[in-house]
Amino acid sequence: MCSDARQAVQGFGNSGCGKSDSTADQEANRWGRNCGDPNRYRPKGLPKNSAIMKLILAVLVLVFLVETQAQWYRFPGQAAGGAKDMWRAYRDMRQANWKNSDKYFHARGNYDAAKRGPGGRWAAEVISDGREFVQGITRRGNSDAAADQEANRWGRNGGDPNRYRPKGLPNKY
Whole-model pTM above 0.70? Predict the structure, then answer.
């Protein structure tokens, strides 16, 4: 079908070769559909060894992989380290038990996790969003969810967590 349609278009002189080109295409199409050897129509001078083409293709694929996913193998370790940073910030917040310090610990946990790389940033976002989601469902501690999320984003985007540090918080934290 496709070859018939092509022949109809080429019959109007769009191919540059006219009817003789279309007839040769039709013959080659029939030959291929009937499981004929495709090398019958191989142009003269075309290399028979495709090793060079395979090598070029392999290099192109490698370049694209390296460019787009240069450090994909580090992501899981970064994510685990980011989760650890988030846990440490939560633990410190509970241990400090300091009034108005939760925004600081939100920002600090996200900041430390995001410094590890894309995996840490992802872990910080998932943990922060998950925590706020659970608090929203249980309606426990959800009064300042928007401010918590703002502190989370501030830390994840590389902002200094000390912006939220309350006065008098021990230097240990």
Answer: no
The number of C-alpha atoms within 13 Å of 104 and in the hemisphere containing its C-beta is 21
Structure token pair of residue 61: 């694929």
- The C-alpha R_g of the chain, in whole angstroms, comes to 32
Say whether both 20 and 84 belong to one domain.
no
Tokens of 67: 């460019």
**121 falls within a domain:** yes
The total of structural domains in the chain comes to 2
Check residue 123 and give its pLDDT. Answer: 95
167 sits in the region (left: phi over 0; alpha: psi -120 to 50; else beta) called beta
In a domain, 130, yes or no: yes
Residue range(s) defining the domain that contains residue 35 = 1-46
Residue 52 included in any domain = no
Q: Are 80 and 141 a contacting pair, CB within 8 Å?
A: no
Q: Is residue 58 part of a domain?
A: no
Name residue, tokens 């969003």. 129
Instruction: Tell whether the model's pLDDT for residue 129 goes beyond 70.
Output: yes
Cite the DSSP H helix spans in the chain. 2-10, 18-33, 51-68, 75-96, 102-114, 118-138, 145-156
97 & 160 share domain: yes
Looking at residue 84, what is its pLDDT? 97
